[in-house]
Specification:
About 25% of the residues lie in helices and about 25% in strands. The protein has a six-stranded mixed beta sheet. The chain is an alpha/beta fold and about 290 residues long. The protein has one domain (about 15-290): Metallo-dependent phosphatases (Purple Acid Phosphatase, chain A, domain 2, 4-Layer Sandwich), CATH 3.60.21. The mean pLDDT is about 95.
């Protein structure tokens, strides 16, 4: 178990021969999960931060309290993410008392064999309005079908270019879950209907904004960037792939037409276990009316 990854068992695109070679080599080199174990043993494992945001909209009914959303992304179960870091993240998710928990994809790194780490921890969470997630590029490369099945057993519904309307008293809120914008399926536009009153976009990477164009929404959430994972003092990323990911590396961004994008640094590691000036985080967002 937890051997060399089988490349491209999922439906993801852009899995190059170079990527294949790198992941095959990492699968061999990281046996025993020593990168995550070493970072923890040296006391260099960063604590998970909770970052709070409040989003207001005139479209929110005046008689309804704000919706409390918890968002976690880039868990990356695998050899560069220590299980204790996942425990810390899920313990914090439980303390947020969120109405709904949203998941931004990249549940594993290198292999879908690690998805039970996430499934088991998801079962601890019981938000009243449920859990919804999308897939990231690593999920689509590893084995998206196996990952979706496991997350479903854990209580999370994965959205692939589909929308879901929350139950009362939040029936005015629609969540559209978009497939990974780089390796997944391009959504059919528009992603919302004219009857959708308060529109929330859940996706893996900021590049999904290129698919959406000028379509209206109130709030979009994503991860993927890791905030650079290794960053300069002040959190300035050194290397982030993708034009919008570089522009929107972490934090809150006010886009055109009163739209808001919030980008998480995520939780786990990929090629490198150590984070520097890019602490892992969970977002807690209050979405409600103007005061």
């Amino acid at each position: 178990m937890y051997g060399v990854p089988v490349p491209l068992a999922g439906r993801g695109t852009h899995y190059s021969s170079a990527r294949h070679a790198v992941e095959w080599a990492l699968g061999l080199a990281y046996r025993g999960h020593w990168p995550a174990r070493m970072v923890r043993a040296l006391g260099m494992q960063r604590r998970v931060q909770i970052r709070h945001h409040r989003i207001t909209t005139a479209r929110w009914p005046s008689t309804v309290r704000p919706l409390r959303i918890a968002f976690a992304s880039d868990l990356h179960a695998g050899p560069t993410t220590h299980p204790s870091l996942l425990d810390e993240a899920f313990d914090l998710l439980a303390t947020t008392h969120a109405d709904v928990i949203l998941l931004g994809g990249d549940y594993v790194f290198l292999s879908a064999e690690y998805i039970p780490w996430i499934e088991q921890r998801l079962r601890r969470l019981k938000p009243p309005l449920g859990m919804f997630g999308v897939l990231g590029n690593h999920d689509l490369w590893a084995d998206d079908a196996a990952i979706v099945t496991a997350l479903g057993r854990g209580g999370a519904r994965i959205l692939v270019n589909e929308r879901v309307v929350l139950p009362a008293p939040f029936a005015h809120v629609t969540i559209a879950g978009l497939d990974d914008p780089w390796t997944g399926l391009v959504p059919t536009l528009p992603v919302f209907t004219p009857d959708d009153r308060v529109r929330v976009v859940l996706t893996h990477a900021p590049e999904a904004m290129l698919h959406l164009g000028d379509q209206p929404f109130e709030l979009a959430m994503c991860g993927h960037t890791h905030g650079g994972h290794i960053a300069l003092p002040g959190g300035i990323p050194i290397l982030v792939p993708g034009p919008l990911s570089r522009k929107h590396a972490h934090g809150r961004y006010d886009l055109t037409n009163d739209r808001t994008l919030i980008v998480s640094r995520g939780i786990g590691g990929t090629e490198v276990a150590l984070r520097l000036n890019a602490d892992p985080d969970i977002l807690v967002i209050e979405l409600g009316g103007e005061t």
